[in-house]
TrEMBL record:
Stated name of the protein: DUF3558 domain-containing protein
Organismal lineage: Bacteria, Pseudomonadati, Bacteroidota, Flavobacteriia, Flavobacteriales
Organism name: Bizionia argentinensis JUB59
Length: 187
């Protein structure tokens, strides 16, 4: 068995490169700490929308099963099936844009950039009376993008199969807006 001092130079080089790559990846991980798939991690993510909010806004009784999942304190989702002739699966997801609280000028720049690059082709529509600024788009089935108190967050809402969705666009906006108002109240 060879000792470390008797290893070939190529092995030393490979070991050195390996250690550098491990150190670099750890540094990148530390830099992105607090985010998950582009979403900010928040300790209160599961408290901002509750099952009770879902029941109230979607008029579901207490016997109706709602599955709540939290992914790495960054995404809170609610899934349920609606009783009807056709199987309809509903899902609501809440996530915040990566980063901490921002100034209104920074939020405006982000908003403008997203509107042009991400939402332009997604049926972008302004929504009033929600947060500082809000818009609805067809992103992910339907998404309400909201700024409030220096934060940017998203309430995504979709029904599967989409073609059987009994809700109009306005009804979807109203329900997502009601959920967003709960988020703002609890932030």
């Amino acid at each position: 068995m060879k000792t470390i001092s008797k290893l070939p130079k190529a092995t030393y080089l490979l070991l050195f490169l390996f250690l550098i790559s491990v150190a670099t990846s750890c540094k990148k991980e530390e830099k992105n700490k607090g985010s998950y798939f582009g979403s900010s991690q928040r300790e209160d993510i599961s408290k901002l929308i509750t099952k009770e909010d879902i029941r109230s806004i979607f008029e579901l009784d207490n016997d109706h099963e709602i599955e709540h999942k939290e992914k790495k304190s960054a995404i809170s989702s609610f899934d349920w099936e609606m009783p009807s002739d056709k199987k309809l699966f509903y899902s609501v997801k809440l996530n915040f844009a990566r980063g901490d609280r921002r100034s209104s000028s920074v939020i405006d720049k982000i908003w403008e950039g997203q509107s042009k690059s991400v939402y332009q082709e997604k049926g972008l529509q302004e929504v009033s009376d929600v947060g500082d600024k809000a818009s609805w788009s067809t992103m992910a089935g339907g998404q309400l993008r909201v700024t409030a108190d220096g934060y940017l967050f998203f309430v995504s809402f979709f029904v599967n199969p989409k073609k059987d969705n009994p809700l109009s666009k306005d009804e979807m906006i109203d329900k997502a807006s009601a959920l967003a108002k709960q988020v703002i109240k609890r932030m």
